[in-house]
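Appendix B, record 7
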Amino acid sequence: MRRLAALVILPALVSACASTGAVPRPFPVPGGVPPTASGGTDPTTSPREPATSTPTAAAGIADGYSISSTALSLRGAPYRDGGETPKGFDCSGFVQYVFAQHGVSVPRDVRRQFQVGAQVDAQTLEPGDLVFFTTVAPGASHVGISVGGDQFVHAPSGSGVVRVDNLSAQYWANRFVGAKRVN
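Structure tokens (predicted):
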């Protein structure tokens, strides 16, 4: 009976970006406990609103530091399959929301996001660049936003919250498929 319950419940707990509909392998959680917006580990803490709620650049061109700052301000927001607001994001909804706060329109799903912008080498990433991973199927199936150095912010699977991870972490390094500069 327990095995049957696990087979029914597990797919509901682990969900992918809305753009693929596939079920990913569970994403790693640094320290085993997802961080919250306040920096602690209290899962009842609600996410902060974005640092800027109005576009900061004219004609849809935004500064990468502003984009990454907005993305970082949303740490702790819960994952929600199909989510595209601070009440819950999937990975591509998170990216679309953050860029929209700066007047930049990007597609809603990962595969289409991977088709926009200029290709960027991993060694020349800048804040605001999109980083793509293969997590559930061949090709780009997960996306995050570079915040500079070795770090990126993203909305991982159903058991996660918006958080910062290292590109060099084995899980992400093994799944990296490319980066794009949209702005």
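Remarks on this record: Residues 2-13 form the longest helix (12 residues). The domain at 2-181 is CATH 3.90.1720.10 (endopeptidase fold (from Nostoc punctiforme)).
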